[in-house]
Amino acid sequence: MDGTLTLAVHDFDAIRKELGLPEGKPILEQIAIYPKMEARRLHKQLDMIELDIAARSKPADGAAELLEALTAKGHQLGILTRNNRINIYATLEAAGLNGFFEDNNLISRNCVPPKPDPAGIHRLLNAWGGTPEESVMVGDHLFDLDTGRAAGSATIYVDPTGEFEHRDKADFC
């Protein structure tokens, strides 16, 4: 969602710093190693940081037109994100993209293990009666590409910088 449908505005290093987490390591995985009460506090703090970011979301160029075209052709659309569910709604609302997705096709870290675990893709495919071979995972992060690969889906790598650092992990760039 962030960096694909919307312009990427997350500064993960700044978020880690604000949470007091070590640099260079995934935020959710770092929080998971803390004792339960401290992890809960960190998740609440992360939720507030992400909600602020979500409220400032802007659509990526062509995102609405792409979603309209895919919907018109009858394609199933879902979102799988490491954000929480509330932030999905806030992001889509702020970006003006909330009319394209059914509620049960919005998959967050609240309902499945976070990416790169493929459980979210499997959940969507089971709901749709689809197979991995019929699906595509679109993303801007290595987690997205690893998730798609683990699920057996094709992967499309979106990188607005044009650098495509993880080109070797994607089927299409």
UniProtKB/TrEMBL annotation:
Keywords: Hydrolase. It holds the Pfam family Hydrolase. It comes from the Bacteria. CDD domains: HAD_like. One of its GO terms (molecular function) is hydrolase activity. InterPro entries: HAD-like_sf, HAD-SF_hydro_IA, HAD_sf. The keyword Transmembrane does not apply. This is HAD family hydrolase. It comes from uncultured Thiotrichaceae bacterium.
